[in-house]
Write a structure and sequence with these properties.
2 copies of one chain form a homodimer. The first copy, chain A, has helices at 5-15, 22-35, 37-53, 70-73, 88-97, 124-131, 147-161, 185-193; strands spanning 55-56, 63-64, 78-85, 102-106, 138-141, 166-169, 196-197. The first copy, chain A, has 198 residues and is an alpha/beta fold. In chain A, β3, α5 and β4 (102-106) form a beta-alpha-beta unit. The structure holds zinc ion (2 copies).
């Protein structure tokens, strides 16, 4: 008894998704082929289109389809303050608090030596170039308050202060161990207002 | 702050996968774009190819790229016995036991009135046509021993017996290696009622 090769390939491809084991991948493949072929084709197109069109903003490093993202192009922003976040979701959370009118830099990760994630993986050179443009005077570190996020903030702080920049950190209004994405906007707003020099 | 439309579309498309909520979908989208664009393109191709090439075997209803699947084309099989299973995975499990040399019919589901899954969804007409070909003389019901699987077996049994076919069911009992102390009472009761001479 042989499984059709295109079904095997689909199951194996689904397994490359984070958090999907062999049983889940098989269930997904069966579901798509049995009940949702339109969904399979739409997901196929969405994957191809995103992989082809999504790039990183030349200034803030977030996902965008342009060279410079909408936020970085926004003329109303305070160009002297730069907020450093781990992910686009974290940036969105901060935007929703309406407490920050500066610009962002999105690391797309955090330092994690045990997982082999070093300064290059969080685009530290790009951040240094961005932060030392002569316009930015303060960098607010808004990485998560996890061990890795704190270590990342510390490392970036040392690096940027050595280049004469003022560096601050969100206040510890955010619960220790908490991830920004899951914290309520009021807490983040308080932490932004209480940010302190590091 | 606007999320790029192709990223939004990708996240929404991933959410249509069974068991994937908004947070998981976003994490998957970020992972693919950040770390595995080749994986994204491969999954895109696998989805399109499977959706285009996978059909249901005209005889046994399983997934195949041909009109008739390899198993149904196998000349070594006993064409007088048909084993009814819920999914291709169940068929594979039975194949691995090497105890069955007949042919199969794959329901691609089980009756579940509460979920709106009726006889049409498990291809009952196709099964009746297959089982009444004049060659099949016995149908072995190997649906799961869940409430829904049992109800499905009962329904199919009544339908096929009314057409003069011999219908059997996998034996219920204590699992091989099972210790009575850890087997539920219902299973032991069934094993007692179904006890066989040795
Ligand atoms: Zn940008
Ligand atoms: Zn077949």
């Amino acid at each position: 008894m042989k499984t059709p090769s295109s079904l095997t390939l689909l199951t194996e491809s689904l397994r490359t998704l984070p958090g999907i084991g062999p049983k889940s991948a098989q269930r997904m493949a069966y579901h798509l082929l049995q009940h949702d072929r339109d969904g399979a084709l739409q997901l196929s197109r969405a994957l191809a289109q995103a992989a082809e069109t999504i790039r990183h903003c030349a200034l803030c490093n977030t996902f965008t389809e342009q060279v410079i993202c909408d936020t970085c192009q926004d003329g109303e922003r305070d160009t002297t303050v730069l907020c450093v976040v781990e992910t686009p979701s974290d940036q969105l959370m901060i935007e929703q608090t309406l407490t920050f009118k500066g610009l962002y830099f999105v690391l797309m990760g955090r330092l994690s030596p045990l997982d082999g994630i070093g300064p290059k993986d969080i685009h530290l050179e790009k951040l240094i170039t961005r932060a030392t443009d002569g316009v930015v005077s303060e960098v607010v570190l808004a990485t998560n308050f996890t061990n890795e996020g704190e270590a990342t903030a510390h490392y970036i702080s040392e690096t940027l202060k050595a280049r004469g920049l003022r560096v601050s950190r969100l206040a510890r209004g955010v619960p220790v161990g908490g991830e920004l994405e899951y914290v309520d906007a009021g807490t983040i707003a308080r932490a932004m207002l209480d940010r302190r020099a590091t």
